[in-house]
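Project outcomes to date are best conveyed with an example. Our students and postdoctoral researchers have been running inverse folding experiments weekly, and each run begins with a structure described purely in tokens. The record below, which covers 321 residues, was selected by the lab manager from last quarter's runs and is presented without edits.
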């Protein structure tokens, strides 16, 4: 009888200790026990891959962010993955990573933009240090010639579950708790930021920011209202002419630069528009390229287009029109 009572007392004490531990685990950082060593052998789950980045100067380094909040990095070209969240934290740190970008001068230095703020790294993303709070933003880029200078574009453009295009721009079907209508600039490696509104419409939602690698004073930004260009390092902006574009509504933008020749090209993915034409459907949009800073564009869609008239089932047509 005495042994049974002792066992019950010990069991009750253990349950009380466990309850207190799990309460603390939810609200405070709990240091891992060094006697237990875990080996992370894959990127894990937590939803689908919402974002994916490859280090610009070290292709062995890659990062992914999943839509339910976890994010992982690899430093051996994908053989192994490790969470970039704080394993001993509350789970809120570096939650919903929106962008990762690295210096072109120092491959170990980079910035990370998450729901709870801006972080920096000095060891190629293995560890991150919190710099400052920020709202939810869409994109981030660094000046390729000067890693003191960084830009952030407001919006939630890449939250693809909740941000959708129509012919008039973006519509939001879910969480609208995010920034809009401005660009942020930092000249001190992300420690502080200044807000630039310029001529952007109040609900501008940015998809890409590109600094001209030949001239840091020239910066391009794309949003649902078109592509804008600055000639004074992001202080003032004007919309590029966009000759050759069917409706100047970018979904995404990128660039190509050949330092040996000085060739610099802009690429733009134009949102597809659908319009009924009798028993068929007309489409416009596709992939476009500019060699003069966005003034004129050539359609290079080629054979990427899909003939939507070949889709006869109404349930599938209903999804794209």
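After processing, the design step wrote out the following sequence:
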């Amino acid at each position: 009888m005495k042994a049974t009572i002792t066992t019950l007392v010990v069991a009750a004490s253990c349950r009380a200790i466990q309850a207190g531990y799990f309460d603390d685990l939810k609200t405070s950082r709990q240091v891992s026990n060094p006697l237990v060593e875990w080996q992370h052998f894959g990127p894990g789950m937590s939803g689908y891959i919402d974002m994916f980045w490859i280090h610009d100067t070290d292709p062995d380094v890659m990062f992914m962010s999943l839509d339910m909040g976890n994010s992982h990095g690899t430093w051996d070209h994908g053989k192994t993955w490790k969470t970039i969240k704080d394993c001993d934290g509350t789970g809120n740190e570096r939650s919903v990573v929106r962008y990762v970008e690295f210096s072109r001068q120092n491959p170990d230095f980079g910035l990370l933009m998450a729901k709870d703020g801006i972080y920096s790294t000095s060891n190629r993303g293995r560890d991150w240090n919190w710099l400052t709070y920020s709202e939810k933003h869409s994109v981030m880029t660094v000046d390729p010639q000067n890693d003191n200078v960084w830009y952030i574009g407001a919006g939630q453009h890449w939250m693809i579950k909740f941000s959708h295009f129509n012919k008039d721009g973006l519509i939001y079907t879910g969480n609208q708790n995010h920034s809009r209508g401005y660009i942020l600039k930092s000249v001190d490696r992300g420690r502080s930021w200044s807000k630039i509104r310029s001529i952007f419409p109040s609900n501008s939602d940015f998809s890409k920011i590109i600094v001209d690698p030949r001239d840091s004073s020239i910066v391009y930004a794309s949003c649902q209202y078109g592509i804008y260009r600055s000639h004074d390092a992001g202080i003032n902006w004007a919309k590029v002419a966009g000759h050759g574009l069917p409706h100047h509504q970018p979904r995404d933008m990128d660039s190509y630069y050949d330092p040996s020749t000085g060739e610099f090209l802009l690429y733009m993915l134009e949102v597809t528009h659908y319009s009924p034409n009798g028993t068929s459907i007309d489409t416009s949009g596709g992939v476009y390229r500019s060699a003069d800073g966005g003034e004129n564009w050539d359609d290079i869609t080629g054979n990427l287009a899909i003939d939507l008239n070949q889709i006869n089932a109404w349930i599938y047509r209903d999804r794209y029109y």
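Helices lie at 2-27, 314-320. The chain has a mean pLDDT of 87. The training component of this project remains on track.
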